[in-house]
Amino acid sequence: MLSCLAFQALGVPAAASVLVHPARIAGALAVLFDQSSTSIFAPQAAPARSVYGLSLLVLGICAGIFLVVGGLLAYAVVRYRHRRGYSVREPAQIYGSNQIELSWTVIPILIVVVLFLASARVIFVNQSVPKPASTIDVTVIGHQYWWEYRYPKLGIVTANELHIPAVDPKHPVPAYLTLTSADSDHSFWVPRLAGKMDAIPNKTNTLWIDPQQPGLYLGQCAQYCGVQHAKMLLRVYVDTPQQFQAWVAAQQKTAVQDPAVAQGRAVFESNACANCHTVSGTSAHGVFGPDLSHVAGRDTIASGAVVNNTANLRAFISDPATLKPGALMPAMHLNDRDLDAVTKYLSTLR
Amino acid sequence: MATSTRVTGHIENPAAHHGALAALTDWVTTVDHKKIGILYMSSALVFLLVAGFEALLMRVQLMIPNAHYIEPETFNRLFTMHGTTMVFFAGMPMLFGFGNYLVPLMIGARDMAFPRLNAFSFWISFFGGVLLYFSYFAGSGLYGAGSAPDVGWFAYAPLTSRVFSPGHSTDYWTLSILLSGIGTIGTAVNIVATTLCMRCPGMKLSRMPLLVWLYLVVSALVFVTISPLTAAQIMLCLDRYLGAHFFDTQAGGSAVLWMHFFWVFGHPEVYILVLPAFAFANEIIPVFSRKAIFGYPAMVAASVGIGFISLSVWAHHMFTVGMGPGPNAFFTFATMVIAVPTGIKIFNWLATLWGGNIHFTVAMMFALGFLFQFLIAGLTGVMLASSPFDWQLGNSYFVVAHFHYVLVGAIVFMIFSAFYYWYPKMTGRMLSERLGKWHFWLFVIGFHLTFDFMHVPGLLGMPRRIYTYEADRGWAIWNMIVSSGAIFQAVATLLFAWNMVRSYFKGEIAGPDPWDAWTLEWATNSPPPSYNFAVTPTVESRRPLWDRKHPEEPDAQFE
Amino acid sequence: MTTNAAAIAHAPAEEWKLPSRGIVAMACVILAESAIFIIFVVAYLYYIGKSLTGPQPKDVLELPIFSTVCLLSSSITVHFAVHTLQHAKARAAVAWLAATVVLGATFLGCTAQEWYQLIYHHGLTISTNLFGTTFYSLVGLHASHVILGLLMLSIVLLFGLTGHLHQRHAERLEVISLYWHFVDAVWVVVFTVVYVLGR
Known about the structure:
The structure holds three protein chains of three kinds. Chain A is 39% helix and 17% strand. Chain A contains ten helices and twelve strands. In chain A, the strands form four sheets. A five-stranded mixed sheet of chain A has the order 3-2-1-5-8. A three-stranded mixed sheet of chain A has the order 4-10-9. In chain A, strands 6-7 form a two-stranded antiparallel sheet. In chain A, a hairpin with an 8-residue loop joins strand 6 (186-188) and strand 7 (197-199). The radius of gyration of chain A is 28 Å and the shape is elongated. Mean pLDDT of chain A is 88; it is low at 1-19. Chain B is mainly α. Chain B folds into two domains: 1-29, no CATH class; 31-558, Cytochrome C Oxidase, Chain A. Chain B is 66% helix and 0% strand. Chain B has helices spanning 14-18, 20-29, 33-61, 72-106, 115-138, 169-197, 210-242, 255-289, 296-309, 325-337, 339-353, 362-385, 387-393, 397-427, 433-453, 455-459, 476-506, 544-549. In chain B, helix 6 (169-197) runs antiparallel to helix 7 (210-242). The longest helix of chain B is centred in the N-terminal third of the chain and has 35 residues, at 72-106. Residues 1-11 of chain B have low confidence and may be disordered. By secondary structure, chain C is mostly helical. Chain C has a single domain, classed as Cytochrome c oxidase, subunit III, four-helix bundle (Four Helix Bundle (Hemerythrin (Met), subunit A), Up-down Bundle). In chain C, 76% of the residues lie in helices and 0% in strands. Chain C is built from seven helices and no strands. In chain C, helix 2 runs antiparallel to helix 6. The longest helix of chain C has 32 residues, at 90-121. The interface between A and B is large, with 90 and 95 residues.
């Protein structure tokens, strides 16, 4: 491995290099950092994995440089300290040496070349790949302070919880994300899947991810976008193919029309709700806020800020600032009866 | 020279004869570079304490997950004000204050080239700082309780447009920095003109102290970096008030263009901040190693090289913006290349220590802390330079840890070192070494508690500029440790302030040359008379006082 | 200690000549101002062809030949003003200065006329589209520098007309003339970018 060569180049003896072998370091790091759901050292998809491999090389080289230079500094400070009884006040004045200057210019240049080539390879692998034929295409649109997801080929519009199918290692079909923003700058960062990619208005960026392990992957917006930047959380559900088919089927249906909650639906359609939100099959076609057609099927609301249950839903509708101060949705000022009705209505929208 | 100045020979303090009002008038109307330098340093210290307090508040809020000590709006203002204040009203004025004080003395000149421009530069910068804090009262204009800007210190578009930032808080950010920029350019003009046109006889460019060289490079950088920021801010004002569309994405404008313009300023800016720290190290480390600096020509070349290369690396702040593989690769390469001359400087300092006779005065202790910490900061910088690694680490607490490692661990440490070294020259009294050691050790403990462990949340996925965080990400314990270090640093800084005040009245008398040093500022009284030197010196080498003290082996023989 | 300083002071081995402070300072200011202009030029170039609506450059811009000739000639006249003052011909210098001010003011007048046409006849303002934004800001930034230069030259002209301009002021006039040459050089760039490349 490149890192072994690097160690040898630095003159670290073979025995020591076994002790600090990259695989052992990787193992130790994994144990230490696996505790966190958003660790960059626990990659679960190819983009994150390629960064992880590069990071071990970079960390290894930097650690080596630190040990050598730091060690020499520590030695110099101890060995050449002034001691009582040291009679010579002024030591020999050495003004410089061209050979030494040359050597400690050339060696760093060589290290830079190694690091650059390794980095360039990962850059091109990740960002120069032509788009494969059949992928799941998702358009990710960042808003102040929630995420919109559109699946153009499947006719789905949803919010805050991204579903993609797990990739079959024998037939890898990565999900291809196109990122942009409707207002200020945002950034899509799910560390275990990939490095971050910014979502910028009037610009489209692309990111591909290919997780093989089903599960829930967490992240959050990584570019300061306003008051509630901190609560613009990301939840990526990597589903088994069956789970994903079921989810798609549910999303493609028109919103549930339960006559038992007709009163709540009336409140929804007649109040300002319809100006910002869409519920398919109703007269609500607003696009400023998240699509609520299947909101009851989501685990969280307010872009991951709180668990999706009746109490939180009711509180959020009544006054979002109680759960997410600075969210752009205004307090709806509904009376208790209307509030209960519309909460019940939304809870039926699976 | 065209200007004629009356040399009065008066050294005594006017206050001794006419009272406090006369002293105040003297300070407010002074054009003496030494007094202006002290004005810069004092105002910078005040802003440093204010911005430090802002940091303390943020660390209290981040101690535990989902804390409610500080509201999100307030927190966002805190990090904006903390960054803006530290860079423009604490860091730059502090470093230009030292430059103002030392450059004329070190080249044997009587004052700066343009004393009145010097005074104007200080007062306009200071006014900028006051204006920034006035926003806390007036951020929304006259009709409503206003507040401070909350757009982050780099104020990305379109968050700063009228639509997303109504009211005037963003304008306070823009205007205060514009004013500070005018002051900075004025000071840079002065430094260049003084250095090129007022050196004492015999002081060829190759005989200038390295501090003077570095301030020359810094000033050259100022001309080509502050101006892009000024231009971008003019564009922002035009957008906000005249309906222009420079950064208006709805009209086809580009948010990325602001980023390019800002970072063309922003990256060289951090070199403007760090080069003076190198300048101090170049003077202090040799004196307390009792050896000449190793490799003077290489140090000059490295400094100039760093200045040039720093103009070509700016987009490493934009690796995640989607520039494409070509630019990402280019900026990775350029950023790594700048590590080469920077490394050369570290190696030359190491070689200066090597074979020396190292005295652990407090100034030297801070300088040694600088050396170790700058090495680490440089290495985390190399990590961030790798574009793919930056895709994970960028905009996370790893970056925050890296740049605070440079700003605090390198620059603030060297500022402390410079204070302990030159305070005797400026005031005629020594700072207490005993209090200084307490200051040093407390600060070192606090610094490492905070900024070593701050790297970990970044590696665990914690982005920056968030007023709180989820409890289930594994970040809580690290944030608690990071916050605990802040207390140590606060106490240490207060100790330092106390040391400065107390030593002014009770410190040991310093005399002209307490450190047995070698550059011209030590050839005159402490504090120097207003005219600096009674007779203009003539020099024959890089260390004129060494030649005086060692006539049997003067530097002039070996250079 | 004064003894230290006195010990250090002695006659230098060779003659000690250093550059003029005023010229160095003006060179620095010109460097900084160039950097500002470069940013506005970059914005102009970047946004060429990107306006979503509104008047386009080729529809509304005409080559400002006359005003350009005036401005570039004023560099020649200010050069002669400095030259004659260096040779103690103060009255000739005042005449050349007056010519410079007149030529500069003519340039400004032409710019004002052009802007009047653009605003009232073509409906192009700074907020119309990206072309309007970048055009008015770049040309306006240059014009404001012309105004500043004219102000400085007019003050010197006033001194000259009241008999206070002498040969010993030649270097100061040279410093101001450097600024004026810079303003003219910027116009060459602006002209090329806006009226040649941009159309």
